[in-house]
Write a structure and sequence with these properties.
The chain has 129 residues and is mainly beta. It has no helices and eleven strands. The termini are far apart.
Length: 129
Amino acid sequence: MSTNDALLKHVSIAAQDSALVAKFDIEGNIPGSGAYVVGLVAATPDYSSQRRLGIEFMNGEAIAFYSFSHEQGTEENYALSGVSHSGNTITGNFPLAAIHGLGKGHLMTAFSEADGREFQSGVAVDEAL
């Protein structure tokens, strides 16, 4: 990927009913070839409990929508109908339960990956939970 493609500019999350709505604003477009992932890493302050929530694209189309619990070693996959993208915004409607148990003092950052390599990490997330 070139530096003109899909850099995370702004990431926000908000609770809506039973959903955790994550919006990823990107510079450029979702790459039309190869793999591209955007997501969130959420953890307790001591990192003893961690979750990774992601949306994966292949050749510009969403192919996976998931959360992974590090302490349980389990991944839960969600229906792709919870993902939308328009222009420079990718939206994922994760179940709020995906971060259940992390508490109010949790830490959260955003990341992106391209073709299996970390592209960006530690991106700040604006939270409205």
